[in-house]
Protein 1
Amino acid sequence: MRVPLRWLSEYVDLVLEPEELARRLTTAGVEVGEIITAGDWQNIVVGEVVKVDKHPNADRLTLPTVDIGGGEKRQVVCGAPNIAVGQKIAYAAVGARLLDGHSGDAIVLRTAKIRGVESQGMVCSEKELGLGEAHEGILVLSPEAPVGAPLSEVLGDTVFDFDLTPNRPDLFSIIGIAREVAALTGQKVRDPSIQYEEKGAAVKGRAKVTVADPDLCPRYVGALIEGLKVGPSPDWMQERLSAAGLRPINNIVDITNYVMLEMGQPLHAFDYDRLADHHIIVRRAEAGEKMELIDGSKHTFTNEMLLIADAERSVAVAGVMGGFDSEVTEDTKAVLLEAANFSGPNIRRTSNALKVRTDASTRFEKGLSQHLPPVAAARAIKLMVDHAGGEAAKGVIDQHPGKAKEGRVTVTMERIVRVLGIELSTKRIREILTALGFGARWMPPDRFVVRVPYWRTDVSIADDVIEEIARIEGYDQLPTSQLRGQIPELVPQPRRDLRERVRDALADAGMQEIITYSLTDLESLRKVLPKEELAVAPPLRVSNPLSRQWEYARTTLRHALLETLASNLRGDQSLISLFEMARVYLPREDDLPNEVEMAFGIVSGREPDRWGRPTGEPAGFFAAKSRLDHVFAALRMTADYREATVSAYLPGRTAEVIVGGDRVGLIGEVHPQVVESFDIGREVGMFEVDLDALLPHVGEIVHFQPVSPYPAVEEDMAIVVAEDVAAGRALELIRASKLVANVSVFDVYSGEPIAAGKKSLAFAISYQAEGKTLSDADVAKERKRIVERLKRELNAELRA
Amino acid sequence: MASDTDIKQLEASALKDLDAASDGAALEEWRVTYLGRKGRLTGLLRSLASLSIEERRTVGRSANDLKKRLQEAYDWRIEHATKARVEQVIAGERRDVTLPGPPLPRGRLHPITQTMRDIVASLSGMGFQVAEGPEIEWDRYNFEALRIPQDHPARDMWDTLWIDYEKDGRHPMLMRTHTSPNQIRVMEQREPPIRIIVPGKCYRFEATDATHEWMLTQVEGLAVDEGISLTDLKGTLAEFARQMFGRDRKVGFRCDYFPFVEPGMECRIDCFICRGDGCRTCHHSGWIEILGAGMVHPEILANAGYDPERYTGFAFGMGVERIAMLRYGVDDIRHFYSNDLRFLRQF
Ligand SMILES: [Zn+2]
C-alpha cells in the first residue's frame, strides 16, 4: 500500500520528519517497508522568469533572468524553446544535484560558460529533476508557486510503501493510516467531507437491489448519480492516484478508485442504462455460468461464487471485478454506484479459484466493516457531483440483512497486568484508546468498557485491546523480567539424544555433515531404489511442486549423498567422506507418513598418506565400515555384519548391519551401475542406519566390570578354512570360550602354500581367568577345545 | 640377621646388576628390586629389629649410607642414559618442526547444525526442553488450530507445499510451513507448566533468492504457566539475543501480527555492522529482525483445555538460517543447502 505524504497530510498534520514518522509507525506494527522520495532537490527553488535576452553567440539559446526570491536575481543560459517571461520555473543553483538531460546520469551542477556566456545555475526540465522523460522544454510550475520556496515544498512528495498485516483491513486506506499517525503523534484526524446536495429525483422506484444470498453479502448500498460527463478527472486526483500507484482512467472510475484508496472501501460504478430493469441482484452463480470481465478475461463460475446480476445476466463478480458489458464508457450518463460488504472468506476463495487478485478482492478478503459502505458511497457521490457534473438522486438504497452488533469489550486492570506484566494508569489507557478512536468508559473499581470503532474489525477480545495499549505505549517502554516459577519435569528425548550422539560420532570419524533437500524427483529415486519398491510404496507427492526437481518426499537419502559427492568431485582422488542425518517419509494409508530418522554416510577417494596426499587404497567397503564401527563404538555397541544382496549395492561387497538380532542398516560398495548414473568415476562406500530401529538397543548405563588382577596370556592362532567361510564366524566361535578375554583377526591369506579354495585366518587371542593366574596347561587345554570347535563347525585345520 | 657383611654383599650385587641394566625397563626393575618399598634394602633394614640397640645403630647407619650411595649410582645412570639419548638426537635425529604431522581425518558439523545447537543450548539453560514433531503435517495443526482457518488471508503469510492426498474434497496434508503446529501437539498432551522448544525443518512454496529458501530450519519456543507476562517474554528474548549475538547487543521490540498470538511482536537487535546508523544488512533501519513472538492467544489456550483466565503464555519462532547468516556473515542463504565442501569446511 503506497501512501503519498502530501495526500496523507490532508487528513492529519504531519509533525514529524518522514524517517521518524516511519520509525514510529513501524514500531507500532504499521510497517513502512520503503520510503520513496521523488528526488533530492537541495539547492533547487521556485524562480520567476523576469526577463529573457538573446544569447549573443547562439540563436537557439536564450539568457533568461530569474528572480529567486529575497531580492536575488540570476542570469542563466537556457536552450528551452518554451521559456517566457512571467513563468514560474524550477531554478537549480550551482551545487544542486540533477540528472543529466541527455544521459540521465546523476550530476552535480557546476558554474559553466556556454558559448562564451556564464550560466549562474540553470532552469530545469522534468527529466533533469527526475520527474519524467520530458527534457525538450523546461518544467513550468503553477502560477501560485511562491518564489524562493524550495521546490520540494511545491512539487516533491514522499511516499510510504507499507508492508501491512492481514488483520488490519482498515489500514489499506489513507484515512486508516492517518488515524494511526494521529494516535502516535497526538494529532487530530480530519475526516473528508461527505456532504452533497441531492438534486435529482428519488432513487426509489428507479433502481432496485435484491440480496438473494445474504450470508455472502451482509450489506449492499446502491446510489444513483445522473447527468454525468465522463472525461479526465482533475489533475490533483490524477496526480494522487499515480503517486499511489494507480493509473488514471476517467473521472468516474478514478473517483471509485480514489475513495477506495482514501477510505478502504472498494466501490463499483455500473452504467445505469446498461442494467436490465435497473435491478441489481446479488446471488450465487449458477454452475457453469460464464462472464467476460473488464480486463477482457473470460471465466466460468461455480455455485460457490457470488455474482452481481441485473434482471437478465451477471454483470460483475462480487468484490473481485466488474463485467465487461456494464462498465462505464465515454457515453455513460448515469451510474449505479455499488458500496457493499461481502464475506471475506468467500471473496478469497473466488479470487483464488479464478486467479484474479484485485485491489478490491485483497481488501474484501480481510473482512471489511459493514458500517463503511454508506460512508464511502456518500464520499464518492460528493466527488462525482463536484468533479463529474453529476446529480445525486434523492436517497440511497441500503440493503442490510446481516446487521452486525456494535463491538463492546470489557477490559479489567487485572487482565492488563496479567498480560503485560505492569500496571498502566487509567488516564494513560484512556488517552491511548481515545486517540485510536475507541470509546473507553471507566467502570469503578477495576474495569473499562471499551467501544470498538466500526473500522476495527480485528478487535473483539480484551487482549486485542491490550495490544492496542501496548503498541502505542511502545513495547520498548515496558520493563523486562525473567521467567520464574517451576521448571517443568524433564521429558526424555531418547530419539533426539541418539541422533545427536551419532551425529557427533560421524563427525569425529572425519566425516563432513551435509544437509540436503527433503524433496526430490522420481528419477533420482529410481536410480537408487528397486522398481518394485517404488511401485508398491510410491513416495508422497507434492501437488504444487516448485519444480519437478522437488516433487516427491524422499524415502531414502542414497541419491542425495551420491549427488553431493558427484558435485564435489574436483578431478583428483582426494578422500571425500560425507554424512547426513535426516528423516525419510514412508507413506501410510490415510495417515501422516512414518518419518524415520536415518543416518547416511558415504566415502570415496583414496586414503591419505603421511603427507595427506591421496595415494592410499581406494576407499570402499572397509573405509565405510571403519567409520560405521566408530559410531557403534561411541554408542558402546557392537554390530554384526551379514553378507546380503541389496539393490543399488554391489553384490559380494554388501552387508546387513545387525544389532541385537535386528537389522538396523546396510553397508556396502555402491553398485557400479548406480555410481555411473551419478557420473562418479570411482568406487564409493556407503552405509545407512535406521536410528529408530537402533533405538531399542541403545545401551542402558554402562556397568563397571572389575579389572582382573591376574595376567593375561597372549597367543596367536592361524587356521585354514574354505574361502567362503566368514572370519566373523570363526571370531564368534573363539569368543564363545569363557577364557577368551579378547580376540581379533590380524591376517587373511590365500595362495601358496595354502591349498586352492582355502584361506588362512590368523587371530590374536588373549586368555584370562577371573579368579586365578592361568597356567600353561590351562591355556593349552582351552586352545585344544577351541581348535576342536573350529574343526567341527567350520572344518578348520590348525595351520602349522 | 643383618650384618656389615650382608651390607657389603648387597652393595656388590646391586652395583653389578646396575651395571648390567641396559635399558629403561631394566633400570626401573633394578630400582624396584633394590630401592623399592618392598625392595632388598628395605628388607635388610627390617631385619635390624632383632639386633641389639648398639648393633642396630651401627648397621643401620651403614645401611642408610648404602641407600644413599645406591640412589646416587642410580641417578647417575639415569641422567647419563637420557643424556646419551639427547646427544644422539641432537647429533642425527632432529625433526624439522615445520613439517606437518600425519593427517588425521577432520569432520565438521553443518553450520546450521552448529547454530541450532547454540540456540538449543541457550534456551535449555532457561529451562526449555526440546519437543520435536512431524515435518509432514495436517492442515488442522499447521493452520486451523493456530487460528488460521481455510480461506483466511493470513494463509498468505505461509505459502504452502501441499501433499497430493485428498480427503472429503480437501487437501488436508502438507509440508509444515513452521514449527508452530507442535505447540498444539504438546499442549494437547501435557498440562502447564510448559516450557518447550521445537527445532526442525519447515517448507515453503517460495521462489529462492539470496534471502529465501524453500526448505528452512526453525526453532519455536512456548512457555505456559500462571503469571507469565509480556515482560517475561521480553526478558527471555533479550537474554537469548545477547547470548547469541553478544552481551552488548541492544534488543528492541515492535508490534507485529501472527494469528496465534495476542499481543504479537517482532524482536530485533541493533545492527552490529553499522551499530544502528543504517547499512545494507539492516536495510538502513539500524535494526535486524531476528524473530517473531507474542503472548499465546487465549483461544489457543482454551482449545488446549487450559483455563485462559488462569494461565498465560508466550511463544516465539525464529529461522536458524537467518541467525546463521548474521553470525557468520553469510550473504546468500542458498549456500547452506548447496553443500559445496569449500563452503561447509569453513565452519
Ligand atoms: Zn546496519
Protein 2
Amino acid sequence: MNVIKVVLKELTERKNQLLTSLLAIVMGIAVIVAIRSITYYSEKAIALEMDALGANVLILPKGVTVDDYYRADLTDETMPESYVDDILTSGLKGVDNMSPKLSMTAQVSGKETIVTGIRPKQEFLAKPVWEMAGNIFERPVGCAAPAAGTTPKAPDAVDKRTPIDVLPENGVLLGNDLAARLGLAEGTTLAVNSELFQVAGVLPPSGTVDDGRVFAHLGAVQRMSGRPGRINAIEVMGCCQSISEGLIAGLNRRLPDAKVVTINQVVSAQQRTNKMMRNFSLVFLVIILMVGGASIANYMFANVYERRREVGILVALGAGRGLIQKIFLLKALILGLVGGVFGYLGGGALAVILGPRLAGISVSPRADWFIYSVLISVGLSLAAAAVPVYRATKLDPFVTLQEV
Amino acid sequence: MIQVENLTRGFAHGREMIRALDGVTFVVEKGEYVTVTGPSGSGKSTLLMSMGGLLHPTSGRVVFDGVDIYRQSPKALALFRTKTIGFVFQQFHLVPYLTAWENVALPLMLNGNNRGKHKPIAVGLLERLGLGSRLDHKPSELSVGQQQRVAMARTLANNPSVILADEPTGSLDPGLANDLVGLLKDLNSEGKTIVLVTHSRELAATGDRCLALLDGKVVQSAEGALVH
Ligand SMILES: Nc1ncnc2c1ncn2[C@@H]1O[C@H](COP(=O)(O)OP(=O)(O)OP(=O)(O)O)[C@@H](O)[C@H]1O
Ligand SMILES: [Mg+2]
C-alpha cells in the first residue's frame, strides 16, 4: 500500500466521472496541438515551395482568392486552356516554361484524393525537385536560375539524365505520401473514379502538396471532370530578371480575364492565414485554460465533498494535513497527466487526419509538443485544484465521521 | 493512563453556544475497561473524539502518560493517533474502494511501515478475525458482521494501546454484538485500555467501571453496572 495506489484506486472507482471531467481539457489540448501541427508543417511546406518556385508566376481565373495557397488550384473556377497559346504567341520575353493544370477530387482506390491534370513535360520542367526521381526528368540549365536556398546542380549531373517526354495516355504519377498510403508502386494499376490507370512512376518526396496528389494527363482530367479545354491554373516559370522587368504587367495586359500573381504574393497570403491560425490557437488556449480549469476544479470540489468521510477516516488513523493535501494534489496531477497525454495523442491524430484535407500536406506529430501539452495540462489542473485541496485540509474529522 | 481534566467543548450554533462537554474530569487507568453511557446528545462522541486527539477542546486538558496531547505539534498529535489510539465506529467507516486487506493496511501505511510488510500483517489480522477467505473483497461485498471485523482488524493494525469504541455494536444484531464484546474483552485481557461508548445497559455493565454523562457532565461513576 502507498498513497499513489490509494489515489489510483479511488480515481478508477468512477471511470465515467473521471472521463467527463477530462473531456474539456483533452479536447482543448487536442485542438491546439492539431492547429499548431498543421500550421507548422504548412509553413515548412511553404518554405520549400518558396525555394523551389519563388521566382514563378501563377495565372488563375479572375475570381479565385489566393488566401489559401493550397486551394488556389482546386476551385471550380476555370479558364480556357488556350491562354497558354495566347502567351506563347504574345512574344512576351522571359517565359521559360508554362505548365497548365486542372485539378479535381476523385475516388482513388476508394479514397477521396486530388487528381491534377498536367502536361507532363512542362510540369517536370516546373518542378525542380522531381528531377531527383532519377532517370525520368531533366531540367533546363540556363536562364532559370535556381531559386535562393537551393544549391545549383552541376551541369554534368543533369546531362546524364534522359528525359521522358511522354507519360503514357493511361499513366499516372503518384505523390510520395499517397503512394505509401495506398501501397502502390510503379507498374501497378489504380482506379480513378471508375477508370483504370497505370502507375508510371512515384514522385520523390517534395514536402509540398504534391506528395498527396495523383498526376494524370491534363486531357484525361478534363474528360473525367467534364471540363474539356478548361484549366484551373498556369504555372509560368519566368526568368527572375524578366519578372521585375514587366513580365507580370505584360501577362496582365494579355490576359485581362485572369489573375496573375507571383508565387511570392500567394505565399505571403498563405503566411498571413497561418499567422491568423496561430493567433486563433492562442485565443483557444486561453479559452481552454478557463473551461478545462473550471471542469477540473468542479471535479475536485465534488471529489473532496464526496470523499470527506474518507478524509475523516485517514485523519482518525493518524494522517496529518500534509498527507490529505498530498492525496488530492496527486489526484489533480494524475488528471493533468492523463489530460495532457490524451490531448496530445488526440491532437496528433487530428492533425494527421486533417492535415492532408485542410492544407494538402502530410503532418506527423511533433514530440516536443508532448512536453508542452503535459506541462500545460498539469499546471492547469494543479492550479484548478488549489482551492478544493485547501478545503480538504480544513475538513473537520469530527463532523465528517459523525455523519451517517 | 489517560487524565481528562475539566474538559469543555462548545459548538457555535448560530448565536447560541452549545456545551457538548462541560467540565468533565475523570481518569482511565492503563489496562482499564471503561464504559460510557448517556442519552443521545449528552456528549459521548464528543468526549471520545477529544480523548483520541481528533477534536480540540475549548478548554481543559487530555493528558496521556504525562503529555498534554493538544499541546503537541500537529505532527506529534497525528503520530499519537497512529501509534497509540485505535478508533472503532458504529458506521465502520471502511474505505469503499479498497479491499479488506487494503483497508487494514491503511494504518500501516500511515505508520511508515515497510511496504512489503503491509500485506502479511493485514492478512494475519484478518485471519485471526476469521476473514482469511475475504481478503480481496470490497466492503460492499461483505456482510455487516464481516465489515465490522475488517474495521476491528484495521483498528488493531498498529497494535494501539488504547481502543476508543463509539457505539461499535449499534449496527450489529445481538449475536454479532456479543462476539464483538468478547473480542474487546480479549483485547482488554491482553492489556489494552478500552473506552466503550454505548446506549445499551447490558453492554455498559460489561466494563470495569461505568461513566454516565448528561448534558456534557459526568453524573455518575460506578463500579460494574449502573443503577438507573
Ligand atoms: N458540529 C457540531 N456543531 C454543533 N453542535 C454539535 C456538533 N456536533 C455535536 N454537536 C452537539 O453536541 C452535543 C453532543 O453531541 P455528541 O455527538 O457528542 O452526542 P452523543 O452523546 O454522542 O449522542 P448520540 O448518542 O446520539 O451519538 C449534541 O447536543 C450535539 O447537538
Ligand atoms: Mg455519538
